[in-house]
Protein backbone atom coordinates (compact mmCIF):
# COMPACT_ATOMS: atom_id res chain seq x y z
CA UNK A 1 0.00 0.00 0.00
CA UNK A 2 1.27 3.45 -0.59
CA UNK A 3 0.42 7.04 -0.22
CA UNK A 4 -0.18 9.22 -3.27
CA UNK A 5 2.57 9.31 -5.85
CA UNK A 6 4.97 12.15 -6.01
CA UNK A 7 4.14 14.17 -9.05
CA UNK A 8 6.48 16.08 -11.32
CA UNK A 9 6.85 13.49 -14.03
CA UNK A 10 6.72 14.45 -17.64
CA UNK A 11 3.37 13.72 -19.08
CA UNK A 12 3.07 10.85 -21.50
CA UNK A 13 0.71 10.97 -24.42
CA UNK A 14 -1.47 8.02 -23.70
CA UNK A 15 -3.78 6.68 -26.39
CA UNK A 16 -7.15 5.51 -25.11
CA UNK A 17 -7.46 1.89 -26.04
CA UNK A 18 -10.83 0.68 -24.95
CA UNK A 19 -11.77 -2.92 -25.59
CA UNK A 20 -14.22 -3.41 -28.41
CA UNK A 21 -16.57 -6.31 -28.59
CA UNK A 22 -16.92 -6.62 -32.39
CA UNK A 23 -19.47 -9.38 -32.13
CA UNK A 24 -21.84 -8.07 -34.74
CA UNK A 25 -25.37 -6.88 -34.82
CA UNK A 26 -27.03 -9.96 -33.35
CA UNK A 27 -24.90 -9.73 -30.22
CA UNK A 28 -25.57 -6.01 -30.00
CA UNK A 29 -29.31 -6.62 -30.22
CA UNK A 30 -29.11 -9.31 -27.53
CA UNK A 31 -27.10 -6.95 -25.34
CA UNK A 32 -29.66 -4.21 -25.76
CA UNK A 33 -32.42 -6.61 -24.72
CA UNK A 34 -30.44 -7.61 -21.65
CA UNK A 35 -29.68 -4.02 -20.82
CA UNK A 36 -33.36 -3.30 -21.05
CA UNK A 37 -33.97 -6.17 -18.66
CA UNK A 38 -31.37 -4.85 -16.27
CA UNK A 39 -29.18 -7.86 -16.96
CA UNK A 40 -25.98 -6.09 -17.97
CA UNK A 41 -23.92 -7.42 -15.16
CA UNK A 42 -25.08 -11.01 -15.40
CA UNK A 43 -24.57 -10.93 -19.15
CA UNK A 44 -20.95 -10.04 -18.55
CA UNK A 45 -20.50 -12.88 -16.08
CA UNK A 46 -20.19 -16.26 -17.74
CA UNK A 47 -21.46 -19.08 -15.51
CA UNK A 48 -17.95 -20.31 -14.89
CA UNK A 49 -14.38 -19.50 -15.74
CA UNK A 50 -11.61 -21.86 -16.66
CA UNK A 51 -9.03 -22.68 -14.03
CA UNK A 52 -5.78 -23.39 -15.87
CA UNK A 53 -4.06 -26.77 -15.39
CA UNK A 54 -1.07 -24.87 -13.95
CA UNK A 55 -3.26 -23.30 -11.25
CA UNK A 56 -4.92 -26.63 -10.48
CA UNK A 57 -1.51 -28.24 -10.15
CA UNK A 58 -0.34 -25.44 -7.82
CA UNK A 59 -3.42 -25.95 -5.64
CA UNK A 60 -2.58 -29.61 -4.85
CA UNK A 61 -1.77 -30.24 -1.20
CA UNK A 62 -2.49 -26.67 -0.03
CA UNK A 63 -4.73 -25.80 2.92
CA UNK A 64 -8.39 -25.35 2.04
CA UNK A 65 -10.61 -22.53 3.30
CA UNK A 66 -14.39 -22.78 3.03
CA UNK A 67 -15.78 -19.36 3.91
CA UNK A 68 -19.30 -17.99 4.25
CA UNK A 69 -19.74 -14.24 4.58
CA UNK A 70 -22.98 -12.48 5.32
CA UNK A 71 -23.18 -8.72 5.25
CA UNK A 72 -25.27 -7.22 8.05
CA UNK A 73 -25.61 -3.61 6.83
CA UNK A 74 -27.66 -2.47 9.87
CA UNK A 75 -24.83 -3.55 12.17
CA UNK A 76 -22.12 -2.51 9.73
CA UNK A 77 -20.72 -5.98 10.17
CA UNK A 78 -19.85 -9.18 8.42
CA UNK A 79 -20.83 -12.56 9.86
CA UNK A 80 -18.06 -15.00 9.01
CA UNK A 81 -17.96 -18.74 9.27
CA UNK A 82 -14.81 -20.44 8.16
CA UNK A 83 -13.68 -24.04 7.91
CA UNK A 84 -9.99 -24.62 7.32
CA UNK A 85 -8.61 -28.00 6.41
CA UNK A 86 -5.09 -27.58 7.73
CA UNK A 87 -2.23 -29.83 6.76
CA UNK A 88 0.79 -29.48 9.00
CA UNK A 89 3.47 -28.77 6.43
CA UNK A 90 5.81 -27.06 8.91
CA UNK A 91 7.99 -30.13 9.39
CA UNK A 92 7.47 -29.86 13.16
CA UNK A 93 4.90 -31.04 15.68
CA UNK A 94 2.47 -28.21 16.46
CA UNK A 95 0.47 -27.58 19.62
CA UNK A 96 -0.99 -24.28 18.51
CA UNK A 97 -2.25 -22.56 15.40
CA UNK A 98 -2.01 -18.81 14.82
CA UNK A 99 -4.45 -16.87 12.68
CA UNK A 100 -4.39 -13.14 12.09
CA UNK A 101 -7.38 -10.98 13.00
CA UNK A 102 -6.02 -7.75 11.51
CA UNK A 103 -9.33 -6.00 12.07
CA UNK A 104 -8.74 -6.08 15.84
CA UNK A 105 -6.11 -3.35 15.44
CA UNK A 106 -9.04 -1.03 14.64
CA UNK A 107 -10.49 -1.42 18.13
CA UNK A 108 -8.68 1.60 19.53
CA UNK A 109 -6.94 4.69 18.24
CA UNK A 110 -3.65 3.67 19.84
CA UNK A 111 -3.33 0.63 17.57
CA UNK A 112 -5.36 1.54 14.48
CA UNK A 113 -3.07 1.81 11.44
CA UNK A 114 -5.47 4.46 10.09
CA UNK A 115 -4.91 6.67 13.13
CA UNK A 116 -1.38 7.64 12.13
CA UNK A 117 -1.18 11.44 12.43
CA UNK A 118 -0.53 11.91 8.72
CA UNK A 119 -3.62 9.83 7.84
CA UNK A 120 -6.11 10.38 10.62
CA UNK A 121 -8.26 13.15 9.13
CA UNK A 122 -8.38 11.53 5.71
CA UNK A 123 -9.21 8.08 7.12
CA UNK A 124 -11.60 9.17 9.87
CA UNK A 125 -13.29 12.32 8.47
CA UNK A 126 -16.13 11.90 11.00
CA UNK A 127 -13.90 10.93 13.90
CA UNK A 128 -12.70 7.58 15.18
CA UNK A 129 -14.85 4.55 14.45
CA UNK A 130 -14.26 1.20 16.06
CA UNK A 131 -13.75 -2.08 14.21
CA UNK A 132 -12.92 -5.51 15.53
CA UNK A 133 -13.76 -9.20 15.62
CA UNK A 134 -16.05 -10.98 18.09
CA UNK A 135 -15.42 -14.72 18.21
CA UNK A 136 -18.31 -17.08 18.89
CA UNK A 137 -16.93 -20.48 18.10
CA UNK A 138 -13.42 -21.93 17.79
CA UNK A 139 -13.27 -25.67 17.17
CA UNK A 140 -10.60 -28.13 16.14
CA UNK A 141 -11.86 -31.47 14.80
CA UNK A 142 -15.28 -30.59 16.22
CA UNK A 143 -14.09 -29.94 19.77
CA UNK A 144 -14.10 -26.49 21.40
CA UNK A 145 -10.56 -25.19 21.85
CA UNK A 146 -8.95 -22.68 24.17
CA UNK A 147 -7.68 -19.59 22.46
CA UNK A 148 -6.11 -16.26 23.30
CA UNK A 149 -5.77 -12.93 21.58
CA UNK A 150 -2.21 -11.71 21.73
CA UNK A 151 -0.22 -8.66 20.78
CA UNK A 152 -0.86 -5.09 21.83
CA UNK A 153 -3.34 -4.80 18.97
CA UNK A 154 -5.05 -8.16 19.63
CA UNK A 155 -4.44 -9.30 16.05
CA UNK A 156 -2.84 -12.63 16.97
CA UNK A 157 -5.38 -15.42 17.53
CA UNK A 158 -3.56 -18.35 19.10
CA UNK A 159 -5.54 -21.58 19.30
CA UNK A 160 -4.26 -24.43 21.43
CA UNK A 161 -4.69 -27.78 19.71
CA UNK A 162 -3.79 -31.35 20.69
CA UNK A 163 -0.32 -32.25 19.39
CA UNK A 164 -0.35 -32.36 15.59
CA UNK A 165 2.69 -34.14 14.13
CA UNK A 166 4.25 -32.97 10.87
CA UNK A 167 2.31 -34.21 7.85
CA UNK A 168 -0.94 -34.75 9.79
CA UNK A 169 -4.08 -32.75 9.20
CA UNK A 170 -7.21 -31.57 10.96
CA UNK A 171 -10.15 -29.22 10.60
CA UNK A 172 -10.46 -25.84 12.21
CA UNK A 173 -13.81 -24.10 12.45
CA UNK A 174 -14.32 -20.44 13.33
CA UNK A 175 -17.45 -18.39 13.66
CA UNK A 176 -17.20 -14.68 14.27
CA UNK A 177 -18.64 -11.28 13.52
CA UNK A 178 -16.38 -8.63 12.04
CA UNK A 179 -17.46 -5.09 12.83
CA UNK A 180 -16.30 -2.88 9.94
CA UNK A 181 -15.18 0.60 10.98
CA UNK A 182 -16.33 3.76 9.18
CA UNK A 183 -12.89 4.36 7.82
CA UNK A 184 -11.37 5.25 4.45
CA UNK A 185 -8.83 2.47 4.52
CA UNK A 186 -8.13 -0.92 2.96
CA UNK A 187 -10.53 -2.22 5.60
CA UNK A 188 -13.51 0.03 6.19
CA UNK A 189 -16.80 1.34 4.93
CA UNK A 190 -17.35 4.71 3.27
CA UNK A 191 -20.64 5.98 1.78
CA UNK A 192 -22.16 2.49 1.92
CA UNK A 193 -19.21 0.94 0.08
CA UNK A 194 -17.39 -1.84 1.92
CA UNK A 195 -13.63 -2.24 1.35
CA UNK A 196 -12.83 -5.65 2.74
CA UNK A 197 -9.11 -6.27 2.63
CA UNK A 198 -7.53 -8.30 5.44
CA UNK A 199 -10.88 -9.12 7.01
CA UNK A 200 -10.93 -12.88 6.56
CA UNK A 201 -9.01 -14.68 9.32
CA UNK A 202 -5.99 -16.39 7.75
CA UNK A 203 -3.31 -18.67 9.15
CA UNK A 204 -0.08 -16.86 9.79
CA UNK A 205 3.25 -18.10 8.40
CA UNK A 206 5.36 -20.51 10.42
CA UNK A 207 9.06 -19.74 10.06
CA UNK A 208 12.15 -20.65 12.08
CA UNK A 209 10.18 -22.71 14.58
CA UNK A 210 7.48 -20.14 15.41
CA UNK A 211 4.33 -18.55 14.10
CA UNK A 212 4.82 -15.01 12.84
CA UNK A 213 3.10 -12.43 15.03
CA UNK A 214 4.14 -9.09 13.46
CA UNK A 215 2.19 -6.07 14.69
CA UNK A 216 -0.09 -4.09 12.36
CA UNK A 217 2.43 -1.33 11.66
CA UNK A 218 0.75 1.68 10.02
CA UNK A 219 3.46 1.97 7.37
CA UNK A 220 3.90 -0.82 4.85
CA UNK A 221 1.93 -4.05 4.55
CA UNK A 222 2.64 -6.42 7.47
CA UNK A 223 0.59 -9.30 6.02
CA UNK A 224 2.21 -12.69 5.51
CA UNK A 225 0.35 -15.80 4.45
CA UNK A 226 0.93 -18.96 2.46
CA UNK A 227 -1.03 -19.86 -0.66
CA UNK A 228 -4.23 -21.79 0.00
CA UNK A 229 -7.43 -22.77 -1.81
CA UNK A 230 -10.52 -20.67 -1.12
CA UNK A 231 -14.19 -21.42 -1.61
CA UNK A 232 -16.45 -18.51 -0.84
CA UNK A 233 -20.19 -18.07 -0.37
CA UNK A 234 -21.34 -14.50 -0.06
CA UNK A 235 -24.74 -13.33 1.12
CA UNK A 236 -25.32 -9.63 0.48
CA UNK A 237 -28.50 -7.62 -0.06
CA UNK A 238 -29.43 -7.32 -3.70
CA UNK A 239 -28.33 -3.71 -4.04
CA UNK A 240 -24.68 -4.69 -3.53
CA UNK A 241 -22.39 -5.69 -6.36
CA UNK A 242 -19.34 -7.61 -5.14
CA UNK A 243 -15.87 -7.33 -6.62
CA UNK A 244 -13.74 -10.22 -5.39
CA UNK A 245 -10.42 -11.98 -5.85
CA UNK A 246 -12.49 -15.08 -6.64
CA UNK A 247 -14.76 -15.26 -9.64
CA UNK A 248 -18.26 -15.07 -8.17
CA UNK A 249 -21.56 -15.95 -9.76
CA UNK A 250 -24.98 -15.46 -8.25
CA UNK A 251 -27.18 -18.53 -7.91
CA UNK A 252 -30.98 -18.69 -8.03
CA UNK A 253 -30.99 -18.58 -4.22
CA UNK A 254 -29.39 -15.12 -4.44
CA UNK A 255 -26.06 -16.24 -2.98
CA UNK A 256 -22.78 -15.42 -4.69
CA UNK A 257 -20.31 -18.27 -4.91
CA UNK A 258 -16.84 -18.80 -6.25
CA UNK A 259 -13.44 -20.32 -5.76
CA UNK A 260 -9.88 -19.10 -5.85
CA UNK A 261 -7.22 -21.79 -5.93
CA UNK A 262 -3.61 -21.30 -4.85
CA UNK A 263 -3.82 -17.73 -3.58
CA UNK A 264 -2.38 -16.16 -0.44
CA UNK A 265 -5.40 -14.03 0.45
CA UNK A 266 -8.87 -13.15 -0.73
CA UNK A 267 -10.31 -9.63 -0.71
CA UNK A 268 -13.61 -8.00 -1.65
CA UNK A 269 -15.16 -4.65 -2.30
CA UNK A 270 -18.95 -4.38 -2.03
CA UNK A 271 -20.37 -1.57 -4.16
CA UNK A 272 -23.76 0.01 -4.54
CA UNK A 273 -24.44 0.73 -8.22
CA UNK A 274 -20.88 0.80 -9.53
CA UNK A 275 -20.02 1.30 -13.17
CA UNK A 276 -18.45 -1.97 -14.30
CA UNK A 277 -16.27 -2.44 -17.38
CA UNK A 278 -15.10 -5.84 -18.51
CA UNK A 279 -12.49 -7.11 -20.94
CA UNK A 280 -9.99 -9.92 -21.15
CA UNK A 281 -6.34 -10.75 -21.56
CA UNK A 282 -5.90 -14.25 -22.95
CA UNK A 283 -8.07 -16.50 -20.79
CA UNK A 284 -8.27 -13.98 -17.93
CA UNK A 285 -11.39 -11.89 -17.41
CA UNK A 286 -10.55 -8.37 -16.33
CA UNK A 287 -13.11 -6.31 -14.41
CA UNK A 288 -12.95 -2.67 -13.49
CA UNK A 289 -15.27 -1.06 -10.92
CA UNK A 290 -15.62 2.69 -10.54
CA UNK A 291 -18.13 5.48 -9.99
CA UNK A 292 -18.67 6.29 -13.68
CA UNK A 293 -18.48 4.29 -16.87
CA UNK A 294 -15.69 6.33 -18.45
CA UNK A 295 -13.57 5.88 -15.31
CA UNK A 296 -14.16 2.14 -15.21
CA UNK A 297 -13.20 1.85 -18.89
CA UNK A 298 -10.09 3.94 -18.44
CA UNK A 299 -8.80 1.80 -15.55
CA UNK A 300 -9.76 -1.36 -17.44
CA UNK A 301 -7.66 -0.29 -20.42
CA UNK A 302 -4.64 0.28 -18.17
CA UNK A 303 -5.18 -2.98 -16.27
CA UNK A 304 -5.33 -4.98 -19.50
CA UNK A 305 -2.16 -3.39 -20.82
CA UNK A 306 -0.32 -3.98 -17.55
CA UNK A 307 -1.50 -7.58 -17.25
CA UNK A 308 -0.36 -8.27 -20.80
CA UNK A 309 2.98 -6.51 -20.32
CA UNK A 310 3.88 -8.37 -17.13
CA UNK A 311 2.64 -11.71 -18.49
CA UNK A 312 5.05 -11.21 -21.40
CA UNK A 313 7.91 -10.08 -19.18
CA UNK A 314 7.60 -12.31 -16.09
CA UNK A 315 5.39 -15.27 -17.05
CA UNK A 316 1.65 -15.83 -17.43
CA UNK A 317 -0.84 -14.40 -14.96
CA UNK A 318 -2.41 -17.59 -13.58
CA UNK A 319 -5.74 -16.53 -12.05
CA UNK A 320 -9.01 -16.62 -14.03
CA UNK A 321 -9.99 -13.09 -13.03
CA UNK A 322 -8.32 -9.78 -12.24
CA UNK A 323 -10.36 -6.93 -10.75
CA UNK A 324 -9.36 -3.30 -10.46
CA UNK A 325 -11.47 -1.56 -7.84
CA UNK A 326 -11.87 2.12 -7.14
CA UNK A 327 -11.48 2.58 -3.38
CA UNK A 328 -12.10 5.47 -1.02
CA UNK A 329 -8.80 5.86 0.81
CA UNK A 330 -5.90 8.33 0.93
CA UNK A 331 -3.55 5.93 -0.86
CA UNK A 332 -2.71 5.34 -4.47
CA UNK A 333 -3.34 1.62 -4.27
CA UNK A 334 -3.37 -1.65 -2.39
CA UNK A 335 -2.73 -5.09 -3.76
CA UNK A 336 -4.44 -8.41 -3.09
CA UNK A 337 -4.31 -11.61 -5.10
CA UNK A 338 -6.35 -11.12 -8.29
CA UNK A 339 -7.63 -7.75 -7.06
CA UNK A 340 -6.22 -4.25 -6.71
CA UNK A 341 -7.79 -1.34 -4.90
CA UNK A 342 -6.98 2.01 -6.51
CA UNK A 343 -7.48 5.39 -4.80
CA UNK A 344 -10.60 6.93 -6.31
CA UNK A 345 -9.12 10.43 -6.58
CA UNK A 346 -6.81 9.13 -9.33
CA UNK A 347 -9.82 8.45 -11.58
CA UNK A 348 -10.40 12.20 -11.90
CA UNK A 349 -9.85 14.01 -15.20
CA UNK A 350 -6.26 15.15 -15.59
CA UNK A 351 -4.95 12.25 -13.46
CA UNK A 352 -4.80 9.72 -16.32
CA UNK A 353 -1.07 9.18 -16.29
CA UNK A 354 -0.94 8.84 -12.50
CA UNK A 355 -3.78 6.33 -12.73
CA UNK A 356 -1.92 4.37 -15.38
CA UNK A 357 1.29 4.17 -13.33
CA UNK A 358 -0.61 3.21 -10.18
CA UNK A 359 -2.50 0.47 -12.01
CA UNK A 360 0.81 -0.75 -13.46
CA UNK A 361 2.51 -0.82 -10.03
CA UNK A 362 -0.41 -2.60 -8.34
CA UNK A 363 -0.75 -5.06 -11.21
CA UNK A 364 2.97 -5.88 -10.93
CA UNK A 365 2.21 -7.03 -7.37
CA UNK A 366 0.38 -9.97 -8.91
CA UNK A 367 3.86 -11.30 -9.69
CA UNK A 368 5.76 -9.82 -6.73
CA UNK A 369 3.61 -10.49 -3.66
CA UNK A 370 0.71 -12.60 -4.95
CA UNK A 371 2.66 -15.19 -6.94
CA UNK A 372 6.07 -14.89 -5.29
CA UNK A 373 5.38 -14.17 -1.66
CA UNK A 374 8.02 -12.40 0.40
CA UNK A 375 8.49 -11.10 3.91
CA UNK A 376 6.58 -7.83 3.64
CA UNK A 377 7.30 -6.94 7.25
CA UNK A 378 11.05 -7.50 7.35
CA UNK A 379 11.99 -7.10 3.66
CA UNK A 380 9.39 -4.79 2.17
CA UNK A 381 11.74 -3.91 -0.74
CA UNK A 382 11.35 -7.44 -2.01
CA UNK A 383 7.92 -6.72 -3.43
CA UNK A 384 7.78 -2.90 -3.51
CA UNK A 385 11.11 -2.23 -5.22
CA UNK A 386 10.48 -5.02 -7.71
CA UNK A 387 7.04 -3.56 -8.55
CA UNK A 388 8.49 -0.09 -8.94
CA UNK A 389 11.10 -1.45 -11.33
CA UNK A 390 8.43 -3.46 -13.20
CA UNK A 391 6.36 -0.29 -13.55
CA UNK A 392 9.35 1.43 -15.18
CA UNK A 393 9.67 -1.47 -17.62
CA UNK A 394 5.97 -1.12 -18.40
CA UNK A 395 6.55 2.54 -19.28
CA UNK A 396 9.47 1.66 -21.53
CA UNK A 397 7.40 -0.94 -23.33
CA UNK A 398 4.39 1.35 -23.79
CA UNK A 399 6.04 4.73 -24.37
CA UNK A 400 9.65 4.12 -25.32
CA UNK A 401 13.13 4.74 -24.02
CA UNK A 402 12.88 8.47 -23.49
CA UNK A 403 9.78 8.28 -21.24
CA UNK A 404 11.51 5.46 -19.38
CA UNK A 405 14.69 7.49 -18.84
CA UNK A 406 12.73 10.50 -17.62
CA UNK A 407 10.66 8.50 -15.15
CA UNK A 408 13.74 6.57 -13.99
CA UNK A 409 15.41 9.87 -13.22
CA UNK A 410 12.39 11.36 -11.44
CA UNK A 411 11.59 8.30 -9.40
CA UNK A 412 14.82 6.48 -8.72
CA UNK A 413 17.79 8.72 -9.31
CA UNK A 414 16.20 11.70 -7.57
CA UNK A 415 15.36 9.49 -4.57
CA UNK A 416 18.94 8.32 -4.35
CA UNK A 417 20.00 11.99 -3.99
CA UNK A 418 17.28 12.89 -1.48
CA UNK A 419 18.34 13.00 2.14
CA UNK A 420 16.56 10.66 4.52
CA UNK A 421 16.95 10.80 8.29
CA UNK A 422 18.44 8.06 10.40
CA UNK A 423 20.00 4.86 9.14
CA UNK A 424 17.10 3.87 6.91
CA UNK A 425 17.99 1.68 3.93
CA UNK A 426 15.85 -0.31 1.48
CA UNK A 427 16.63 -3.42 3.57
CA UNK A 428 15.11 -1.85 6.72
CA UNK A 429 12.01 -3.58 8.23
CA UNK A 430 8.71 -1.65 8.10
CA UNK A 431 8.64 -1.34 11.90
CA UNK A 432 11.61 1.09 11.73
CA UNK A 433 9.76 3.57 9.52
CA UNK A 434 7.70 6.38 11.02
CA UNK A 435 7.16 8.55 7.94
CA UNK A 436 5.25 7.51 4.82
CA UNK A 437 7.32 9.65 2.46
CA UNK A 438 10.61 8.29 3.78
CA UNK A 439 9.25 4.78 3.40
CA UNK A 440 8.35 5.40 -0.21
CA UNK A 441 11.62 7.12 -1.11
CA UNK A 442 13.80 4.49 0.54
CA UNK A 443 12.04 1.18 -0.02
CA UNK A 444 10.38 1.76 -3.40
CA UNK A 445 12.63 4.20 -5.16
CA UNK A 446 16.08 3.53 -3.73
CA UNK A 447 15.16 -0.14 -3.66
CA UNK A 448 14.47 0.01 -7.39
CA UNK A 449 18.05 1.23 -7.90
CA UNK A 450 19.16 -2.31 -7.06
CA UNK A 451 17.14 -3.66 -9.97
CA UNK A 452 18.54 -1.00 -12.31
CA UNK A 453 22.05 -2.02 -11.21
CA UNK A 454 21.22 -5.69 -11.81
CA UNK A 455 19.94 -4.74 -15.23
CA UNK A 456 23.41 -3.47 -16.12
CA UNK A 457 25.20 -6.29 -14.36
CA UNK A 458 23.33 -9.39 -15.58
CA UNK A 459 23.79 -10.61 -19.16
CA UNK A 460 20.03 -11.20 -19.63
CA UNK A 461 19.15 -7.97 -17.80
CA UNK A 462 17.05 -7.75 -14.65
CA UNK A 463 13.90 -8.86 -16.49
CA UNK A 464 15.48 -12.20 -17.39
CA UNK A 465 16.44 -12.72 -13.77
CA UNK A 466 12.99 -11.73 -12.48
CA UNK A 467 11.31 -14.07 -14.94
CA UNK A 468 13.45 -16.96 -13.65
CA UNK A 469 12.77 -15.86 -10.04
CA UNK A 470 9.00 -15.90 -10.63
CA UNK A 471 9.22 -19.31 -12.27
CA UNK A 472 11.23 -20.70 -9.35
CA UNK A 473 9.18 -19.26 -6.46
CA UNK A 474 5.61 -18.95 -7.79
CA UNK A 475 3.04 -19.91 -5.12
CA UNK A 476 5.80 -19.98 -2.49
CA UNK A 477 7.51 -17.53 -0.18
CA UNK A 478 10.98 -16.32 -1.16
CA UNK A 479 12.96 -15.02 1.80
CA UNK A 480 15.72 -12.44 1.46
CA UNK A 481 18.17 -15.36 1.74
CA UNK A 482 16.32 -17.16 -1.06
CA UNK A 483 16.57 -14.05 -3.24
CA UNK A 484 20.29 -13.70 -2.54
CA UNK A 485 21.04 -17.39 -3.15
CA UNK A 486 18.94 -17.52 -6.31
CA UNK A 487 20.65 -14.43 -7.68
CA UNK A 488 24.10 -15.88 -6.96
CA UNK A 489 23.19 -19.13 -8.72
CA UNK A 490 21.62 -17.28 -11.65
CA UNK A 491 24.56 -14.90 -12.09
CA UNK A 492 27.19 -17.56 -11.35
CA UNK A 493 29.02 -15.32 -8.90
CA UNK A 494 28.72 -13.74 -5.48
CA UNK A 495 26.29 -10.81 -5.73
CA UNK A 496 26.41 -10.39 -1.94
CA UNK A 497 28.49 -7.18 -1.94
CA UNK A 498 26.16 -5.57 -4.52
CA UNK A 499 23.08 -6.43 -2.44
CA UNK A 500 24.75 -5.17 0.70
CA UNK A 501 25.65 -1.94 -1.06
CA UNK A 502 22.15 -1.25 -2.43
CA UNK A 503 19.96 -2.69 0.33
CA UNK A 504 21.84 -2.38 3.59
CA UNK A 505 24.26 0.51 3.32
CA UNK A 506 23.25 3.80 4.82
CA UNK A 507 23.67 6.79 2.53
CA UNK A 508 24.59 10.19 3.92
ZN1 LIG B 1 3.25 -1.59 -3.94
How would you describe what is shown here?
The chain has 508 residues and is an alpha+beta fold. The protein folds into 3 domains: 57-270, Sandwich (Immunoglobulin-like); 274-366, Zincin-like; 374-504, Neutral Protease Domain 2 (Neutral Protease, domain 2), CATH 1.10.390.10. The protein has helices at residues 24-36, 40-43, 53-59, 120-123, 293-314, 352-364, 381-399, 401-417, 436-457, 461-473, 480-491, 496-504, and strands at residues 2-3, 64-72, 77-87, 94-100, 132-140, 143-144, 147-150, 156-164, 169-179, 187-190, 193-196, 202-203, 206-207, 210-211, 228-235, 240-244, 247-250, 256-263, 268-272, 275-281, 284-290, 321-327, 331-336, 339-343, 372-373, 476-477. The strands form 6 sheets. An 8-stranded mixed beta sheet has the order 6-5-9-3-2-15-18-17, with helices on one face. The two termini are 27 Å apart. Mean pLDDT is 91; it is low at 5-40. Bound molecules: zinc ion. The site of zinc ion has 5 residues, from helix 7. Zinc ion binds next to helix 7.
Features:
alpha+beta; Zincin-like; Neutral Protease, domain 2; 31% helix
State the share of residues found in helices, binned by percent: 25-40%
Give the class-level CATH name of the largest domain: Mainly Beta
* Mean pLDDT rating: 91
Taken from the alpha-carbon principal axes, the silhouette is globular
Counting structural domains, the number is 3
Poorly predicted runs are 5-40
Strand order across the largest sheet: 6-5-9-3-2-15-18-17
Number of beta-strand segments: 26
User: What would the CATH topology of the largest domain be?
Assistant: Immunoglobulin-like
CATH architecture of the largest domain: Sandwich
* Strand residue content: 25-35%
The kinds of small molecule bound in this structure are: zinc ion
* Number of separate helices: 12
Oligomer: single chain
CATH superfamily of the largest domain: tricorn interacting facor f3 domain
How far do the termini sit from each other? 27 Å
Radius of gyration: 22 Å
In terms of structural class, how would the helical and strand content be classed? alpha+beta
